[in-house]
């Protein structure tokens, strides 16, 4: 059964010219891109997107980072797309992310970790609604 996930190439990834690399990996894996947009998030949208992290000590810094420049938001579709993209992204902490993954190949900082991928099908639905309300 096909499912959808929300992928963000975060402002660090856009700034460093890694959009093409991320898209190439998604396509090479066989996942399908069904929506794509370059945009700069408002603080309000960023806070909604990262709602579950509101109480964390890094929340303010995360919102500042994610609104600090344009990002690329994508909706990606395929069999178990949530898990498939998280495999491509690698562990949240790029230092321990496996080489061959996006974070393992390109990053060292936990906040500036290039990409976001929804962590469950429920999160994916909520996040896709926030970024692409017209897709439903
Ligand atoms: P993401 O997968 O988008 O989910 C939450 C984000 O918060 C994460 O990627 C990182 O960008 C950031 N993050 C997670 N843990 C930390 C941390 N300990 N310090 C700073 N930022 C973090």
TrEMBL record:
SMART domains to which the protein is assigned, alphabetical: NDK
Role this protein plays: Major role in the synthesis of nucleoside triphosphates other than ATP. The ATP gamma phosphate is transferred to the NDP beta phosphate via a ping-pong mechanism, using a phosphorylated active-site intermediate.
GO function terms (MF aspect): nucleoside diphosphate kinase activity
Active site: residue positions: 116 (pros-phosphohistidine intermediate)
Cofactor: Mg(2+)
Source taxonomy: Bacteria, Bacillati, Actinomycetota, Actinomycetes, Streptosporangiales
Signal sequence segment: none
EC class name: transferase
Positions bound to ATP: 10, 58, 86, 92, 103, 113
Secreted found in the keyword field: no
Subcellular location: Cytoplasm
UniProt entry keywords in alphabetical sequence: ATP-binding, Cytoplasm, Kinase, Magnesium, Metal-binding, Nucleotide metabolism, Nucleotide-binding, Phosphoprotein, Transferase
Entry-linked InterPro entries: NDK-like_dom, NDK-like_dom_sf, Nucleoside_diP_kinase
Record field: catalytic activity: a ribonucleoside 5'-diphosphate + ATP = a ribonucleoside 5'-triphosphate + ADP; a 2'-deoxyribonucleoside 5'-diphosphate + ATP = a 2'-deoxyribonucleoside 5'-triphosphate + ADP
The enzyme's E.C. designation: 2.7.4.6
Full protein name: Nucleoside diphosphate kinase
The protein's assembly and partners: Homotetramer.
């Amino acid at each position: 059964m096909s499912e959808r996930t929300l992928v963000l190439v975060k402002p660090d990834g856009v700034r460093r010219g890694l959009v093409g690399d991320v898209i190439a990996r998604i396509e090479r894996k066989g996942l399908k891109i069904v929506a794509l947009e370059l945009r700069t998030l408002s603080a309000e949208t960023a806070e909604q997107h990262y709602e579950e992290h509101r109480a964390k000590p890094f929340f303010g810094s995360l919102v500042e980072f994610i609104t600090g420049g344009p990002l690329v938001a994508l909706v990606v579709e395929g069999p178990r797309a949530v898990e498939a993209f998280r495999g491509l992204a690698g562990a949240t902490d790029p230092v321990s992310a496996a080489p061959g993954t996006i974070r393992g190949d390109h990053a060292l900082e936990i906040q500036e970790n290039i990409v976001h991928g929804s962590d469950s099908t429920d999160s994916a639905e909520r996040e896709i609604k926030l970024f692409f309300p017209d897709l439903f």
